[in-house]
Amino acid sequence: MKQYETVIGLEVHVELATRTKIFCGCSTAFGGAPNTHTCPVCTGMPGSLPVLNKKVVEFALKAGLATNCHINQYCKFDRKNYFYPDNPQNYQISQLYLPICHDGWVEIQTSAGKKKIRIHEMHMEEDAGKLIHDEWEDCSLVDYNRSGVPLIEIVSEPDMRSAEEVIAYLEKLRCTMQYLGVSDCKLQEGSMRADVNLSIRQVGSDTFGTRTEMKNLNSFKAIARAIEGERERQIELLEMGRPVVQETRRWDDNKESSHAMRSKEDAKDYRYFPDPDLPPIHISDQWIQDTKAQLPEFREEKQQRYQKEYGLPAYDAEILTESRHLADLFEETATLSGNPKKTANWFMGEVLRLVKEKGMEPEKVHFSAKHLADLLDMVEKKQVSAQNAKRVFEKVFDQDIDPVVYIEEKGLKIVEDTGLLKSTVTRILDENPEPLAQLLEGKDKVMGYFVGLIMKELKGKANPAGVREALADEISKRK
Q1: Which of 136, 239, 264, 437 could be bridged to 246 by S-S, CB 3.0 to 4.6 A?
Q2: pLDDT above 90 for 134
């Protein structure tokens, strides 16, 4: 049986996190009422003229430098001509001939090891509007709020050979853009979208097969399923002696199948020409140097530093650096608490647990590092039990309360009154004669039962080690 190799390249659209659109002053905020973030420029009205948002160039420059791209210091915009209802101008302002960035790469990590994925180019462009299909009225409506939102399109070389490599590449791009602060890369909101160009060929061949482009992919799981589905479809066609047609296909994740949308266009079909309303962009050496100096410490660098500076295991460092926002919060807390390992354990346990339970974006976590450091200090000094500390932290997480004040007000500090502890131990033992008899007979497992009763009686305000010590002392007197 013939063996086939999958060849994959990606076109990734990343929506830039500017406050205003690429060529006008309209808001880029997500979720506004339809057609409320619009003006004559982004709705393509006759006579309106675009003015380039400098922040878009700054963000694209950052993204290019972070992905090891060469920078075109002289670049310009072109018009990509096509008709579609969500494209009000009947052309899209993009970059074909002189994109801002080219010939870069990122390194990915998969089960097979490390691999470099080359980036052919990265260019700036404007987004189109959004079509909303109303099945009840049997019509389509257009929302132009997204029209003119700035994008960078990152075009890879066909270097990927599996769904695993594709997902690793997308995760690397997403993490890089989020660390840079140029995009939130929320797939569910469309601020990161990927089109998959896929072909197959026999193993050993150096000739590419006919590629198809897969659209409508809004999650990593959908992308992985689409790759496997399209691979199988193309192999089946070739095994039947039928050709693969170069076309754009739409993936239906519910049906786990795709269908043809249109024949795949080439650049000549769009009749590109330089945009006459926008002057070329000149990027100086100084601008590039200043941008390089502003690049943050990226995830891999943080992981290495956490292991070296904090003595954390590689696994801990990997988990803690997934979100730049949480990593910064962790570092501030670790500095204030003076105990990086215990801070790391708390973040990986309680912080990430609450983020997951509440379905939050990590960037939405906004409790004070000092408040968590103060709580950890109280746990370390045995002023509050670990169980009560976790309950208090839920309040810190939600409302950013001062834990020291809250613990004092609610009477949650560990009981230091040895007289109260001894009298409670004596009373609990007297009220439970049968378990007491078992304990006196040497059945040490019953000790945990009594510790639980006493902790419950004291509402978690006793130190478990102190309770065990008081219990052991009283039992030795009764033997």
Answers
A1: 264
A2: no
What letter would DSSP give residue 310? Answer: S
The Cα–Cα gap between 322 and 84 comes to 39
For residues 332-358, average pLDDT: 96
Burial of 190 from C-beta contacts in 10 A (0-12 / 13-18 / 19+): middle
Question: pTM for the whole thing?
Answer: 0.85
Helix axes 54-66, 163-180, angle to 10 degrees: 130
Location of structure tokens 């008899």: 437
Cα separation values, 439 from 161, 200, 478, Å: 64, 72, 11
CATH number of the domain bearing residue 429: 1.10.10.410
Return the higher-pLDDT residue of 216 and 182. Answer: 182
The mean pLDDT value for 11-31 works out to 96
Q: Are 419 and 430 in contact (CB under 8 A)?
A: no
Number of folded domains in the chain?
Answer: 3
pLDDT band at 193 (very low <50, low <70, confident <90, very high): very high
Domain of residue 462 covers 418-478
Retrieve residue 472's tokens: 């052991």
Two tokens at 46? 């006759």
| Strand 247-252 to 212-215 pairing | parallel
- Asked if residue 93 has pLDDT above 90, the reply is yes
Q: What is the residue-wise DSSP string for 8-53?
A: EEEEEEEE---SB-SSSS-B--TTPPTT-S--TTTTT-TT------
